[in-house]
Amino acid sequence: MCRAVARIDRVKLLAKRARAFLKYALKALEEGDSDFAVFSAEQALQLMLKAVLLHLAGSYPEIHSVRNLLGLYHHITSDEWVKDIATRFRRELAELEEAYTRSRYGGAPYSEDEARTLVEVARRIVALLEEKHRELVDC
C-alpha cells in the first residue's frame, strides 16, 4: 500500500513540475529568452510523459528522449493520436529533444520564431496528455 501511495505522490509531483516548466516556458517567451523557453518546454513535455507513464505502467525509463517516451506511451496505450503527433511534429520533437543539451552546453541560440513553435508543440502535447488523463490535471 505504501508503494502505491508513494507512486501516486510521485505522479502528482511530476505533473505539477511539468505544468510549472510550461508556465516558465511561456514567461520566458514573453521576456525574450528563447533558449530558456525551449529548454523549459522540453522539460514540461518530458516530465508530463513520465508522469503519465508512471501512472499507467508503474514506472518510466530513465531517459530524456521525448520521442522514445512518446513511443513507449503509444506501446502501452495504442492511442492513434500519438502516431499522428509523432509524424506531424517529427522535426519539432527532434528539436525539442536536442534542446535538452543544446540550451545547456552551447550551440546556436534559438530564434524567437523557433522558440514559439517549439513551445506551442510542447504545450499542445502536454494538453493532449492531460485531456486523456484528467486525474493528473487536478493534482
Please render the helix and strand layout as text.
Layout: H1 2-30, H2 34-57, H3 66-77, H4 80-88, H5 90-105, H6 112-132
Helix pairs in contact: 1-2, 1-6, 2-3, 2-5, 2-6, 3-4, 5-6
Describe the structure.
There is one protein chain. This protein has 139 residues and is mainly α. The chain has one domain (2-136): Up-down Bundle (Four Helix Bundle (Hemerythrin (Met), subunit A)), CATH 1.20.120.330. 80% of the residues lie in helices and 0% in strands. It is built from six helices and no strands. It has helices at 2-30, 34-57, 66-77, 80-88, 90-105, 112-132. The longest helix has 29 residues, at 2-30.
Quick rundown:
The protein is mostly helical and 139 residues long. The protein is built from six helices and no strands.
Under the CATH scheme, the architecture is Up-down Bundle
What distance lies between the first and last C-alpha atoms, to the nearest angstrom? Answer: 20 Å
Broad structural category: mainly alpha
Strand content: under 5%
Count of DSSP E strands? Answer: 0
CATH hierarchy, class? Mainly Alpha
Number of domains: 1
Using only CA atoms, what is the Rg? 15 Å
Keyword list:
single chain, 139 residues, mainly alpha, Four Helix Bundle (Hemerythrin (Met), subunit A), 6 helices, 80% helix
